[in-house]
Amino acid sequence: MTSTDRSSKPTLAVVGATGAVGTVMLGILSSREDVWGEIRLIASPRSAGRKLVVRGEEVEVIALSEDAFEGVDVAMFDVPDEVSAQWAPIAAAKGAVAVDNSGAFRMDPDVPLVVPEVNAHAARVRPRGIISNPNCTTLSMIVALGALHAEFGLTELVVSSYQAASGAGQPGIDTLREQIAKVGGTNLGTQPGDVRRAVGEFGPFPAPLALNVVPWAGSLKDEGWSSEELKVRNESRKILSLPSLRVNATCVRVPVITTHSLTVHARFENEVSVARAHEILGSAPGVVVCDNPAEGEFPTPADVVGTDPTWVGRVRRSLDDPYSLELFLCGDNLRKGAALNTAQIAELVAAELTSAAPEAAK
Q1: How far is C-alpha 80 from the chain's CA centre?
Q2: Which terminus of the chain is less hemmed in, N or C, by CB atoms within 10 Å?
Q3: Which residues bind substrate (predicted)?
Q4: Is 166 exposed, middle or buried (0-12, 13-18, 19+ CB in 10 A)?
């Protein structure tokens, strides 16, 4: 595409372009329909000057500053909460729509929390000029649950998550790999404390992750709940516009590099059937059904990693309740769980801006 072709399209800024999610984002931007004019890469001053490839071209990274947002139509933020909290309002004040992947604004009543397959309409109402991207755990299930809710009417969720190390960022990935190297090829795991002693440092986790399962993700909140567990509850309610939805979650960290998994007990207003659930999920955008246990077919992180959809398997009607379904879901937490959903939101805004431009010119 020529520069002339791109000049009439919205300008996109990727803030945090050199981070783990930002790197995935650049690959996604290169593989999806090209709706952008200039793509501006922004990162911390220490990363300024680096050159990254996006859409097959080298682009130099510039330092985060107010001037970096001049002429930007949409700014995607893949940075820590505190950075987004400071800079997303600045980008919005400069005229950009900020699409934020952090947790800084998710529960702000003036900031829509958007999953395009579920509530795309919400992206148009943004009083602060900011749209928020849900947490990766919520995103790993909500596309499938949104489709089922539209048919059956969701009333309750009981969720257990099995979250990958990359949910804790690059330090989580590095820690798991280092721990695996330390315990690999040994007889560890048969005596109390031997894995703990062997791995030494726990990194961002409260216990060894290699050869282990850690029933904790996030920070401690009231009455023993973790921040990750409350995110699943609060974000599901907001996305589905069900403020009284009953949700209880237990978040667990497992020794997987990337891709979150969840078991879900979902109760509905109307009676359910597996056959109808398969039909709904099979036709839902962004969902793949992989459900044939007799042939050993169900989603696992090893198969789902690097893919975009939510994968659903082990669909069963609850043994004692014709209004409930049991599901197992997997989703790549760096793709749909972060970068892809952010890109999809940004594309909604780009389409809105593009359609509004001819009207404004009249």
Answers
A1: 14
A2: C
A3: 163, 253
A4: buried
Single-letter amino acid code for the residue at 96: A
| Residue 316 in marked binding region | no
343 annotated binding-site participant: no
pLDDT tens digits for 211-236? Answer: 999 999 999 999 999 999 999 999 99
Tell me the C-alpha distance between 218 and 215, whole Å: 10
86 is in an annotated binding site: no
Instruction: Read off the tokens for 194.
Output: 């031997």
**In DSSP terms, which residues pair with 98 in a beta bridge?**
75, 130
**Structure confidence at residue 2 as a pLDDT band (50, 70, 90):** very low
Consult the annotation and say whether 187 binds a ligand.
Answer: no
Residues 266-294 as b or e (16 or more Cβ within 10 Å = b)? bbbeeebeeeebeebbeebebbbbbbeee
For 170-214, write each residue's pLDDT tens digit. 899 999 999 999 998 777 888 899 999 999 999 999 999 999 999
SS (H, E, C) 195-264: HHHHHCCCCCCCCCCCCCCECCCCCECHHHCEHHHHHHHHHHHHHHCCCCCEEEEEEEECCCCCCEEEEE
Strand 130-132 relative to strand 260-268, pairing = unpaired
Query: What is the rounded CA–CA span in Å between residue 330 and residue 318?
Result: 20
pTM above 0.70, yes or no: yes
Consult the annotation and say whether 47 binds a ligand. yes
Distance CA 129, CA 69 (A): 14
